[in-house]
Design goal:
The complex is a heterodimer. In chain A, a hairpin with a 5-residue loop joins β7 and β8. Chain A is built from no helices and eleven strands. By secondary structure, chain A is mostly beta strands. The model of chain A has no long low-confidence stretch (mean pLDDT 95). In chain A, the strands form two sheets. In chain A, strands 2, 4, 5, 6, 9, 10 and 11 form a seven-stranded mixed sheet that branches. Chain A has a four-stranded antiparallel sheet with strand order 1-3-8-7, with no helix packed on it. By secondary structure, chain B is mainly beta. Chain B contains no helices and eleven strands. In chain B, β6 and β7 form a beta hairpin. Classes of the chains: A mainly beta, B mainly beta.
Chain lengths: 113, 110
Amino acid sequence: NAGVTQTPKFRVLKTGQSMTLLCAQDMNHEYMYWYRQDPGMGLRLIHYSVGEGTTAKGEVPDGYNVSRLKKQNFLLGLESAAPSQTSVYFCASRENWDNSPLHFGNGTRLTVT
Amino acid sequence: GESVGLHLPTLSVQEGDNSIINCAYSNSASDYFIWYKQESGKGPQFIIDIRSNMDKRQGQRVTVLLNKTVKHLSLQIAATQPGDSAVYFCAENTGNQFYFGTGTSLTVIP
């Protein structure tokens, strides 16, 4: 099993450009999450999904959209990138029962200039 | 919102010594806690977890202690090795969401 795979690993955008980050998991997990990680701060939840076709807002959803058209994939979109969205983005998945841990991908480092 | 904090941002230990990393959490309703290890350029890696109905759980060279009275969590690493150098996070789980601390950077001195 590859676990959680994120693409791309690195990306540089100019302000106003758009892009989509892809997360794929092969563990048949129901729940998937997008976090951002910034220096001096804990991981912050952007959006999450509790199943195919469902999404919900997290702590910092503004400026991002997500889609979960297939159970194994969770896409994070930036429609008009801003420098404040420079960050490392992590996708995670977990099983749909209580007390199951998050499994993380290796992240996408995004720089917006 | 949730507040999960760590007592020390950095910790240096001699190789072979034991390490203790602490974490405070704020939500008494949280019922599940996890410790993660993050190496540079990688995603957080699961180390050990504990449910709120337990006080202690042991893994290979690691032990997690939970004190619900003071809302405190600790990670003990026995016989710390150079490969243990990383940032360690605690996380608390409430419902479908997890809340993370800012992390403690552990450096192992050979």
